[in-house]
Structures are given as C-alpha cells and as structure tokens.
Specification:
SH3 type barrels, 5-stranded antiparallel beta sheet, about 15% strand, about 45% helix, 3 domains, Arc Repressor Mutant, subunit A, alpha+beta, binds zinc ion, globular
C-alpha cells in the first residue's frame, strides 16, 4: 500500500467523526506505520495549513475539510464499487480500496457514482454526501433494547471482522445489553462485546420508525 497525504486526511476525518479527536499515535496505529513517519507527514500537513495541532490533538482546518471531503467521498464510492463488482467481502472492502480510491476523484469518481446508481452510503453505512446528518445514538448512550445497526464510523478491520462474524451489517437488527461491564450486541447469529473505541464508533438507530411503518401498512 502506497500511502499519500489523502490517507492521513481520511484517518483524521474518521477519528473526528467517531471519537471527536485524533493524535499522531492514533494515525500510526491505524495506518500501521511508525510514529516518526507520521510526525513527518503531519508536519507537512501543518505546513500546508490542512490540519492544526492543539496539545496532542489534531484537527482539520477549514481548508483541510475542503480537501478531505472529496477524499472521503471517493473512498466510500470506491467501497461500493469494490463490494459490488470486485466481490470483495464487507469486512475487507475498506482496506482493499485504500489504493483504488485515489483513482476515483474528479470526473472519474462522478461517472462511477452515476453508474453505481447514486448510492447513499458506503457498505459500512457512512454517507457518501458527508453532510448528511446521521444517528447520534452510540452503544454508550443507548439504553438496553433492540436497535438497527446504523453505521460504523471508524472502519477498523478488527471491528468489521467482529461484526461480520455474527452478520451484524448496517440495516440489521441487534439487541444491546451490558454484560461483564461491557456493551454487548447480540443477534440470532451470536453476540460480540465492544471495545472502548467501538463504543464511540458504532451508531445505532431506533427501531420505531420502521415499526410504525409496519403498523401503518397493516391498516
Ligand atoms: Zn465504508
């Protein structure tokens, strides 16, 4: 995998959407590269005015966001493409498009988006139009009960493999409860307990609108 500055921006975006902040250590872990390499790249991004650093926290600047939004969009479109046409598994598709997505910016990306039928979301439930407001219910803020898995904002391989192990994909139903001090998601395929970061990067939505619709359909 050849990393370029777009990969860094994408990681900073993912973390800011999930946990609200990023550090160079997070980026190093996420991209599996050394901290000095990250420091060097982040130095360049700071110099370009794309990110700002406060204590150890990194944030995209206004111009950083402008550059990053098309990168996020291309990534999500490339994921839909890779899953649909390259038949790459749901849990693999994020990693698989890390090289591919850079080819799908600008008009190529727009053409691909059109031929894919203008999908709303990536396979992990994240909106292609990044300004679309999403559910704010996280496993930590949710009460025990049934929910629909809405999205996984931080597409960590471990998280995706864990969820795919019980076929918990966006749009499917999960039951949430606490067990041994950990949030647990369960469906008829099994159960998984969530890590600290997963508690912040998974979004759930209420069942009620669909239930309501089913009731209305029966009337
Ligand atoms: Zn995705």
């Amino acid at each position: 995998m050849v990393l370029n500055y777009e990969d860094y921006l994408l990681v900073i975006w993912e973390y800011s959407e999930s946990v609200g902040r990023t550090s160079e250590v997070d980026i190093a872990r996420r991209l599996k590269i050394t901290l000095p390499t990250v420091n060097e790249y982040v130095g360049k991004l700071l110099g370009m005015g794309l990110v700002e650093k406060n204590a150890r926290e990194l944030k995209l600047t206004r111009s950083g966001k402008k550059v990053t939004i098309p990168v996020v969009r291309s990534h999500r479109i490339a994921e839909v493409f890779a899953m649909k046409f390259l038949e790459i598994e749901w849990e693999e598709v994020h990693r698989a498009v890390m090289d591919l997505e850079h080819l799908f910016s600008g008009s190529y990306g727009d053409n691909l988006y059109k031929h894919l039928g203008y999908p709303d979301k990536c396979p992990h439930g994240n909106p292609i139009d990044v300004t679309t407001p999403g559910s704010r219910i996280t496993p930590l803020t949710a009460k025990n009960g049934e929910y629909v898995l809405d999205r996984i904002t931080l597409e960590l391989n471990d998280t995706l493999e864990k969820l795919s192990g019980i076929s918990a994909f966006p749009g499917t139903k999960v039951r949430l409860y606490w067990e041994n001090n950990q949030v647990t998601l369960e469906n008829d395929q099994g159960k998984v307990s969530l890590s600290e970061v997963e508690n912040q990067s998974i979004r759930l939505r209420n069942l009620s609108p669909r239930k309501k619709q089913l009731v209305l359909e029966r009337l």
